[in-house]
Amino acid sequence: MSVDSSNSRPAVQGRVKWRRFALVAVPAIVVAGILIGLTAEGAIASSISVSGQEYLITANKLTGTGFEQFGGDVTSSNGEQPVIISAIHSASLSSLCQSVTVGPVTLHLTAGGGSTPVTADNLIVDASGQTGSEAVFHNISIGLDAGSLSEDPGTTGTAGGFGQQADTVEIDNLVQHTWLTTAGTFTLPDLSLGFGGSC
Length: 199
Description:
By secondary structure, this protein is mainly beta. Helix content is 12%, strand content 52%. The chain starts with 17 loop residues before the first helix and ends with a strand.
């Protein structure tokens, strides 16, 4: 008797059923994308824990378009810290300096000291205080509901909270005591990073 070889072939292992994979993966990717987008727009709050130590930022001049500002807080090892949240759609900083003391040493960063300033897109700074020798705002609205701010980058605060926004902002001799800085893109020409010295 002969055995039909076409009926005795072993099943091929390790094949991916791409249709089934797509049915599972595509909805998950879409949901993740929506959540990320809502967080970036401020519709969903993202929980961020900071280091528990402020750092100093200075700049000869900050200019920006799409400015929003409102109150908030950050969580550190010392508990909740009240902060002033400043969001700028497109920012430029000349002669940027950043310093932070870690134990016995100070970490010191400088950039944008030449003809090309530091630039940042969708810059968000959580600071405990901010000063400048002069600040100029164009088309500013003060006392808005922080949950309804509409300038790009579209970050909003707590509904009912105090907020303000402006088309443009210019601050000379900026000094910020900062807990947290985030940006979509942060470009640092003439970057120098090392130990020693403060801003």
